[in-house]
Amino acid sequence: GAGVSQTPSNKVTEKGKYVELRCDPISGHTALYWYRQSLGQGPEFLIYFQGTGAADDSGLPNDRFFAVRPEGSVSTLKIQRTERGDSAVYLCASSSSRENEQFFGPGTRLTVL
Amino acid sequence: KQEVTQIPAALSVPEGENLVLNCSFTDSAIYNLQWFRQDPGKGLTSLLLIQSSQREQTSGRLNASLDKSSGRSTLYIAASQPGDSATYLCAVRTQGGSEKLVFGKGTKLTVNP
After folding, report:
1. How many other CB atoms sit within 10 Å of the CB of residue B79?
2. Which of A41, A51, A103, B89 has a Cα at 20 to 30 A from B45?
3. Hey, are the CB atoms on B98 and A56 less than 8 Å from each other?
4. Residue A34 in contact with residue A47, Cβ under 8 Å?
5. Could you read off the pLDDT of B22-32 as tens digits, one per residue?
6. pLDDT tens string B39-65
7. Which of residues 18-47 of A touch B (CB under 8 A)?
8. Distance CA B71, CA A13 (A)
9. Residue A55 neighbours by CB under 8 Å, 6+ apart
């Protein structure tokens, strides 16, 4: 694929529901990142994977948020018991190495009613 | 804790003008700095990456400089065009093992025909 892809592009859910957001990184990129962007703000870091393992999950706001990357490629961000405050654009990025630039996907806009 | 500030928050210029966007960061121990462009409702497009050992990077009409000791970077856009209208984000990766990017809130640029 040409770039990072994310699905769905938009997700509307009700408070208390469970959602999964998917990220397909650029082929061969070992590093994968999740960020969250609220309106009028810059993206905020959530979690970083190097291969299959979460190397840094310090940005996850609480234990309702969880992410996996079981085969070192596709990643899924999972949010349990969604709250209205979780509404934001969730961005995924990948990189070929620690030194190189991060390439971002188009994001998933999550709306919790 | 690294903090990134971008000034101005918004900028409106006539077509053809040269302009400078500013980015400052509080912790000068950075690994690299990246400038992004974000169109409304879209993801981030990487424009330029400057490693900590570099002073500037150029791509077409864009030139980014880095003064690590003073905690500043500038993005210079020459001969601005209406198609340059977007939000420009600056992000730094701080030394010390963290792979995350810390973003500013961005500068919203409008280039008027």
Report:
1. 11
2. A51
3. yes
4. yes
5. 999 999 999 99
6. 988 899 999 999 999 999 999 999 999
7. 31, 33, 35, 40-45
8. 42
9. A48, A49, B99
**Separation between Cα atoms, residue B71 and residue B25, nearest integer Å:** 5
Going by their DSSP bridges, the two strands B62-67 and B56-59 should be labelled as antiparallel
Amino acid at B75: L
- Residue A77: what residue type? L
Q: What share of chain A is helix, strand, coil (3-state, %, to 5)?
A: 5, 50, 50
Q: Does the CB of B32 have a partner CB in chain A at under 8 Å?
A: yes
Q: Give Cβ neighbours of residue B71 (< 8 Å, ≥ 6 apart).
A: B24, B25, B26, B27, B28
Looking at chain B, the whole-number percentage of residues with pLDDT higher than 90 is 88
Q: CA B25 → CA A94, B61, B90, distances in Å?
A: 23, 24, 10
Segment A47-103, tens digit of pLDDT:
999 999 998 999 999 999 999 999 989 999 999 999 999 999 999 999 987 667 899
Contact status of B105 with chain A (Cβ, < 8 Å): yes
Q: Which of A45, A60, A108, A109 should be substituted to probe chain B, the one whose Cβ sees the most B Cβ atoms within 10 Å?
A: A45
User: What three-state secondary structure class fits A84?
Assistant: helix
* Residue found by looking up tokens 């101005």 in the block: B8
Beta bridge partners of B45: B37
Q: How many Cα atoms within 13 Å fall on the side-chain side of residue A48? A: 18
Rounding to the nearest 10 degrees, give the CA dihedral for residues B65, B69, B71, B72.
-20
